[in-house]
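[step 3/7] inverse_fold.run input=structure_tokens len=130
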């Protein structure tokens, strides 16, 4: 799983959280010709998608997390940041809310989900340096 962009402030990953990951994978693969690769995670499989012959993934599909019951399936975009913890603190100072505090994803990076003052959610990520 390699992000397409890793500079501070750039969009780098898109992720679908859904109640039906297998059906969504089938739908989007047929619709857009996406190639997929499964990555076993604790308790679920994460599907990485790529398009246009890209050597690395450009997004992923995963089941809706247990703590998100009642949330409709949705695509969420990730923006690369230099430091997820610092960015979360800055978002709060600017009137944003923390939807999911920073947490580590082994071998990938540190992620969080924030909500802007108008209510829109976006994910942030600091990638592990490889």
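[step 3/7] decode complete -> sequence:
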């Amino acid at each position: 799983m390699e992000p397409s962009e890793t500079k501070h402030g750039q969009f780098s990953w898109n992720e679908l959280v859904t109640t039906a990951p297998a059906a969504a994978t089938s739908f989007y693969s047929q619709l857009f010709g996406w190639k997929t690769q499964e990555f076993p995670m604790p308790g679920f499989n994460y599907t990485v998608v790529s398009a246009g012959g890209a050597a690395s993934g450009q997004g992923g599909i995963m089941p809706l997390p247990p703590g998100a019951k009642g949330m409709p399936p949705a695509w969420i975009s990730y923006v690369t940041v230099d430091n997820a913890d610092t960015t979360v603190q800055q978002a709060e100072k600017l009137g944003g809310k923390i939807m999911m505090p920073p947490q580590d994803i082994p071998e990938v990076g540190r992620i969080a989900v924030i909500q802007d003052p108008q209510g829109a959610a976006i994910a942030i990520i600091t990638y592990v340096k490889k």
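[step 4/7] annotate
Strands lie at 11-18, 35-41, 44-50, 59-63, 74-80, 97-105, 109-115, 121-127.
The chain has a mean pLDDT of 91.
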